[in-house]
Amino acid sequence: MFRILTVLFIISFSNFAFGQTLEEIVDTYVEKKGGKITLTRLNSMKEIKKVVTTDVTYQTTTIQKGPAYKSTLNYEGIEITACYDGSQGWATNPITRKYEVLEKDDLGDMLNQIEDFPDPIFKSYRNQYELTKGNDTLINGRKCYEISILKPDYVFMKNNIVGKKDFYIDKENYQLVKSVEYNANGKLSIYYSDYKEIDGVQYPHTQKAEINGIPSYTSTTESIELNKRINSALFSLDRQ
């Protein structure tokens, strides 16, 4: 009986310590990111990035406001847009260059971007998705915590996308160093660096992506605006 009680106590204590450790990591991460109040009050963003791949260089403009999202890719004067106005999604047909209404199965990626704004760890914790702490690991020589977020799988472009994502947080400064997710192309790893404070929020200005370990692209933030007035007409298909 004593052994059983001892084992139960150890298990209970371990679970308690594990939970507290995970909570402390997330709380500290959020505080270093900008704090709960600042992140909660963040309701809009406009970000312009330069993206360099092995073949081409192009610019992207992403605008978010509440439940609306719009991303535009500009390559040598050609614009490709994907947008969700809060109830309907639409995008540029790359062949006809005309706007078309998207089917429900094509909205998964944008809806995830909206739900994760302004930060996937903060929002997932706040929305009570399952978070777990993995083993500490080294990422480019930096000791990191590993946190996994388990969200429902979803469909994007008729492909099943795994809802689980892994995040690696620097143990010293609590900045996000790397994220890993799985999409139709395989394992997508993104490395974050060059953090700068924008209106009280720490944002990485450089992201380097790999697909299945092969370099895919590097994006550099050219400008970012937070909580600025954004005209809702930007998201409306009828106003384009």
From TrEMBL:
InterPro entries: TP_0789-like. It comes from the Bacteria. Residues 1-19 form the signal peptide. Keywords: Signal. It holds the Pfam family LolA_like. Residues 122-237 form the Uncharacterized protein TP-0789 domain. This is Uncharacterized protein TP-0789 domain-containing protein. It comes from Arcticibacterium luteifluviistationis.
